[in-house]
Amino acid sequence: MNIELLTIGTELLLGFTIDTNAAHIARTLGEIGVRLVRRGSVGDRGDDIRDAVRESLDRTGALITTGGLGPTRDDITKRVVAELYGTPLEFHDEIWQVLVERFARMGRVAPAVNRLQAEVPRGATVLRNHWGTAPGLWLEDSRGIVIMLPGVPREMRMLLAQEVVPRLAARGANGVIRSRVVRTSGIPESLLAERLGDIEERVTPLTLAYLPGYDGVDLRLTAWNLPSAGADAALADGVGLLRERAGDHVYGEEERDLAAVLLDAARQRGVRIAVAESCTGGLVGKRLTDTPGSSDVFMGGVIAYDNAVKTQLVEVPQVLLDTHGAVSEEVASAMALGVARRLGVSLTLAVTGVAGPGGGSQAKPVGTVWLATALDGAVKTQRLVLPGSREEIRLRAAQAALLFGLRRLQSGARLDAPTDGAPTPA
């Protein structure tokens, strides 16, 4: 079954509300073999909603809408759809009584305006909303299906799971649409594609998508309309092949964060971590402490932004700053060793660089970053020239520092990307 999605709300078009509903609906429908073939958004204008619903029914014959089911004047979705279907709205006293009781439990009298939410297009199936005031609606005739859901994310998700998915699944999909994601870092998209080679032919009937970001390149494999067991088996084989081809640039799957992977590796070796950061301003420490349970591994760190902090708190010799400058291999190494001594840990990550937009030179252009890791007193360094804005350079530098630390802990691991001038990640 193919279906379209229309998210309704002027706030979506203005950018004041981020549309998280669409992604959740697409993933949920895929699990039961229903393919979302088109997504659109319109504001709270009757003509726009009417045109969009009509076009979807003409194209596909099945549509989910979110939003516009509330009690205020801009909530006009069901009225417009009812007019399009040529059916009147009818007041349902049982829905109104449920609303009255809901407000009574909160110590309030149900506002009269909420009576609008008890109006239902004649012939529609009411999808009971136990989590809010706006019931969902399922309207179907020879023109097709329109499933109307509230825009409040929690209410939408619960109605989708409890009321919509069982009805769609009962119509007998032939297979599932299922994906798995392999996460890589430390290699640009183009080089990763070269390394994967003929991978897309090898993983047929799966499809492969490259999803580059500041933290690396995610590889998403998708199985389309296969039986559940067949999809899982094909995806497992495909993931194995991706891991083999991408090698040690793979650090996890699905939404697994690199910081969590590093913390697990340190925990397994009984190693504690500290950081010394300059250009990243605490981003590496934030990434680590964003992970629940990090306190048993992460000791702390120093944001050594000013040179005086570098000398006083992480014991960088002044002569290194005078001779080589703050953005240098020598200073990064000294930062890594200094914070190790000050905090008494086995593994440290140090970052110093030119994040821009100013401050660069021919020898040290904007984006130049020196990383250093000290593991049991042994230091390794890496120089990168990272692309992007100031924010992107800082985010990429933090990711690169975490990756560099992970490589130090992984037995026999190495960094295949060039250490001079290679952007990490793509």
What is the topological layout?
Elements lengths: L1 E7 L1 H5 L6 H11 L3 E8 L3 H14 L2 E5 L10 H9 L3 E3 L1 H13 L13 E3 L3 E3 L8 E6 L2 E6 L3 H17 L6 E9 L4 H8 L2 H4 L4 E7 L2 E11 L1 H19 L3 E4 L4 H12 L3 E5 L5 H7 L8 E6 L3 H7 L4 H7 L4 H15 L3 E7 L14 E8 L2 E8 L4 H20 L17
Parallel strand pairs: 1-2, 1-3, 3-8, 13-14, 13-15
Antiparallel strand pairs: 4-5, 6-7, 7-8, 9-11, 9-12, 10-11, 15-16, 16-17
Task: Explain this structure.
This protein is of the alpha/beta class and 426 residues long. The chain folds into 3 domains: 2-169, Molybdenum Cofactor Biosythetic Enzyme, Chain A (3-Layer(aba) Sandwich); 176-253, Alpha-Beta Plaits (2-Layer Sandwich), CATH 3.30.70.2860; 258-409, Maf protein, CATH 3.90.950. The protein has 15 helices and 17 strands. It has helices spanning 10-14, 21-31, 46-59, 77-85, 93-105, 153-169, 189-196, 199-202, 228-246, 258-269, 283-289, 307-313, 318-324, 329-343, 390-409, and strands at residues 2-8, 35-42, 62-66, 89-91, 119-121, 125-127, 136-141, 144-149, 176-184, 207-213, 216-226, 250-253, 273-277, 298-303, 347-353, 368-375, 378-385. The strands form 4 sheets. The chain has a 6-stranded mixed sheet with strand order 2-1-3-8-7-6, sandwiched between helices. Strands 14-13-15-16-17 form a 5-stranded mixed sheet, sandwiched between helices. A hairpin with a 2-residue loop joins strand 7 and strand 8. Helix 2 packs parallel to helix 6 (153-169) and helix 3 (46-59) crosses helix 4. The longest helix has 20 residues, at 390-409. The two termini are 37 Å apart. The model is unreliable at 412-426 (pLDDT under 50).
